[in-house]
Design goal:
27% strand, alpha+beta, single chain, flat, 22% helix, 83 residues, two-stranded antiparallel ribbon, 3-stranded antiparallel beta sheet
Amino acid sequence: MKTISVKREGSRWYVVLSCDNVPARPLPATGAMAGIDMGVASFLTTSDGDHVVNQRYLAASADRVADAQRDLARRRQVSPSPV
């Protein structure tokens, strides 16, 4: 073991391990290639011709975000009591 670190992202915890002298086993060459084109009309298109649509998560939740920001702006700021 080289290093160990514990990381928290949101409500999830991760352990990151870093090792030295780990033997690598390369995968056999297949000769296959893949291409990905990120575009405007569709989120991405693969070299096989598959199209992945853009879900537009921000646009879908913009009304909820605007409502939450208005609610937050209306709240009165309370300062902590002196100790």
